[in-house]
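User: I've been trying to design a sequence by hand for this structure and keep getting stuck. Would you show me what you'd pick, starting by listing the structure so we're on the same page?

Assistant: Good idea, let's start from the same input. This is the structure you sent:
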């Protein structure tokens, strides 16, 4: 987890404690029922069933993505999610793939 994700996790944990206190007053202090409810909510929130916000690109995944685009490997596990990112990757690929072919040809002649 990055520093931003740690901040969000700490905020979420604090919010969960506040929610638990508020719900305790609503359900007449039946803590067992409340704990079961909160456990179910936590399981749903931690699963991939809920779409989380967009991931921030870090250096290593960015290099992996750009390499798979220009080498036409196309693993497909990393892809731009915004419309602008999807549009910009097209000219990048149209320019990067031929440049990669030229690079590989020059390496082949050098060997």
């Amino acid at each position: 987890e990055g520093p931003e994700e740690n901040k969000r996790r700490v905020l979420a944990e604090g919010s969960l404690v506040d929610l638990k206190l508020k719900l305790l007053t609503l359900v007449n202090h039946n803590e067992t029922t409340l704990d079961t409810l909160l456990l179910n909510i936590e399981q749903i929130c931690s699963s991939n069933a809920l779409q989380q916000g967009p991931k921030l690109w870090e250096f290593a995944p960015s290099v992996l993505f750009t390499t798979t685009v220009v080498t036409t490997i196309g693993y497909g596990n990393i892809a731009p999610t915004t419309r602008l990112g999807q549009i910009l990757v097209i000219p990048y690929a149209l320019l990067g793939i031929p440049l990669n072919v030229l690079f590989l040809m020059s390496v082949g002649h050098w060997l």
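That's my pick for every position. To get oriented when you compare it with your attempt: The first helix runs from residue 3 to 26. The radius of gyration is 23 Å.
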